Amino acid sequence: MDIRMKWFYRLGFLLLLFIVLYIFMKLKPMWAPIVRVGMKVLIPFLIAAFISYLLHPVVELLHRKGMKRGLSIVIIYLLFFGGFGFAVYKGIPIMTEQIRELSENAPAAAEQYRNWTDWIGRKTEDWPFGIHERLDATILKIEGKLESLMDTIMNYSMKLFDFVLLIALIPFIAFYIVKDYDALKKMTRYLTPRKWRNQGIAFLKDIDVSLGGYIRGQIIVCAAIGGISSLLFWIVGMKYPLLLGALIGITNIIPYFGPLFGAIPAALIAASISVKMIIIVVVIVLVLQFLEGNILSPLIIGKSLHMHPIFIMFALLVGGEVAGVIGLIIAVPILAVVKVSVIHARIHFKNNPSID
User: Fold this and answer.
1) pLDDT tens sequence across 282-325
2) pTM metric for this prediction
């Protein structure tokens, strides 16, 4: 085929693809409700599959050590869901109480910040180039965000009750997935076309090696950092230690920028107490950052991704721009999948030079 004709063919294919996508988006009012219902039904299965993916290596490890497979599944299953259930049973009332206490103390904290902003306003009123006005606008924006924070938390908490039945199904679905993990793998293999089977298995294995260790390790590190920060905040007498520790642990899943995001609420609350508490909180966050970066992450996660930090930072910036906080969380896993996909695509085209 002539090179010019190949380019015309490719451009025509792209044009046709854009037309199909345009029509598809125009028909969104028709298919969007179906997608919402489908996602609502699929969510417990996706969560259960993710939990099973996390637990399966531990089950296999116990099985290789000589324990019967059924017994190892029951032990790991009970430990995971029992521990998670106990944490929820003990932690949710404390978390709810701390959120309620924080909302009750919000007016006093707002008054404290208002005194500070008035002082900053007096000190900056003679600054040139509209800096004073911009600082006032920034402070007002921060106050608005703080006021809407509690409403957002409570709204999301109430929405969880709409999914009680679906959430209750997750342990049962996860149990059967873990129990029949090998059978499901065989079924997936037989459903895959024979010509793609070996390459697909190799592709999934590489993704598991690159991504599985990172996800499991990151969850362990985040849980450890959240627990240690809650304990340290409680020891130094910081308000809302469990709530702030949970925020630091959750945001720690975002590489590089996560600890900073998690430290902001703690620093703001510490600022309403005393300057000494601000210093203590900053020291705790710096110690946790050192612990996570130099001990926990290298020990637990290692270098499972094998990617330069520049690529990770670029993925985080793109993810944050496209999808906000969710984008920051899923940016690195998506980058790992893209990396493995590119490597396998190169191998595929190298082994099949006739493919245009």
Assistant:
1) 888 888 888 877 777 666 665 566 677 777 778 888 887 887 77
2) 0.68
